[in-house]
Amino acid sequence: MENGSKQIRSKSLTGGTKERSRASTASRRTSGEDAPEIPKRQDPSKVVWPQKLLLASPRGFCAGVRRAIDALNRLVEAHPRQTIYCFHQIVHNTYVVSEFESKGVKFVNSLEEVPENSIIVFSSHGVSPQVRQQAEKKKLKTIDATCPFVTKTHLEVKKYASEGDKIIYIGQSHHDEAVGATGEAPESTVIVQTPEEIEALEISPSQKVALVTQTTLSFDETEGLRQALKSKYPHLIEPSHSDICMATQNRQNGVKELVQSGAKVVIVLGSANSSNSNKLKKVAEKMGVKAVLIDEISELDLSLIESVECVGLTAGASLPENKITKALEWFKDHGTKTIEEILVADESSISLPTVDTHQPSKA
User: Where along this sequence does the record place binding of dimethylallyl diphosphate (predicted)?
Assistant: First the structure.
């Protein structure tokens, strides 16, 4: 992440654009847990409604998610009479998964559930070599929708392992992405997520140690773990560029700008099993404001925005834009007068190679 000042663009959705210089997104490490509890009151007509809504940009679908969803949609259209299988959820969003299920797609957690010679899509989170080998044995036709940023971490694990390094992977051991990446060299890899786990590591001083990180984590959290590793292993080998993907960082920076621009509550739209969505909520909380993660705006506990003058809204990288549009309309319909978009980065130029779905390959 760059240090120093930067230009943040703010745009009213009723017109007008302005730019302001803001200091680097150094967050205030205070806790919002001591804020007074607000009595629940779920009738919108009785709520003193926020007058201003700040909308983070970028938000919602990232390039990798859009790429994976597009690939699965094209497969469904190309094979209307054939069941398309997907290994794990294509992205971690309940709405997206439900939409595909309504089109006949079957999401599986084991290839044992997939008949031989079927078409199987590997989700955006990637899979281990063991899964690919199992697919080959079952003569499955595979489409690989792994996000290229995730593929980068797979290549790093393979490279470090081939050079005899011990790999420390910062990530969530249960997450599909972590399982796939560390599966490239399970005997050479150890997963850590806390300072205590780093302290407990016992690696020979003569052993070379390399670092790989899950792409959807919070920069602030992983930076502390990275520094702890560098302190313990001064010769720690690191990738030339951070593993945390640009879209993840942009959305986290967006949350920081929402708070620094006056939001007292931050609403994150996304699913509970979405790692990057959960991190957005945590970023807001660490800056001292209340935050909530919900699948869609109708789930919002109105007590959170009762008498709050300014509210922030963002979305995880796997949430469709129509869910955000619905949320904006919901606020407008209930009396929010000003909606202002806070732009921290322009992702319009990000382009990823399209997944080839025309010739499914045998694994």
Answer: 92, 125, 175, 274-276, 318
Annotated binding site for dimethylallyl diphosphate: 92, 125, 175, 274-276, 318
- Distance between CA atoms of 1 and 22, rounded to whole angstroms? 15
Q: 149-232 architecture in CATH?
A: 3-Layer(aba) Sandwich (3.40)
What are 359's two structure tokens? 């010739």
Q: Distance between CA atoms of 319 and 60, rounded to whole angstroms?
A: 5
Give the residue, 193 or 20, on which the prediction is more confident.
193
pLDDT one-digit tens code per residue, 145-194: 999 999 999 999 999 999 999 999 999 999 999 999 999 999 999 999 99
Query: pLDDT tier at 356 (50, 70, 90 boundaries)?
Result: confident
Task: Name residue, tokens 């294509």.
Answer: 90
- Known binding positions for [4Fe-4S] cluster: 62, 147, 245
E strand residue ranges, 65-214: 84-87, 106-108, 119-122, 141-144, 166-170, 189-192, 209-213
User: Within 10 Å of residue 292's Cβ, how many Cβ atoms?
Assistant: 17
Q: Is the dihedral of CA 235, 241, 244, 249 positive or negative?
A: positive
- Which residues are known binding-site members? 62, 92, 125, 147, 175, 215, 245, 274-276, 318
**In the chain, what are the domain boundaries?**
6-61+246-343, 63-147, 149-232
Look-up of token digits 């694994």: 363
Q: Whole-model pTM above 0.85?
A: no
The fold for domain 6-61+246-343 equals Cobalt-precorrin-4 Transmethylase; domain 1 (3.40.1010)
Q: If residue 225 lies in a helix (H) or strand (E), which one and from where to where?
A: helix 219-232
Catalytic residue among 77, 116, 136, 177: 177
177 classed as catalytic: yes
Separation between Cα atoms, residue 215 and residue 228, nearest integer Å:
19
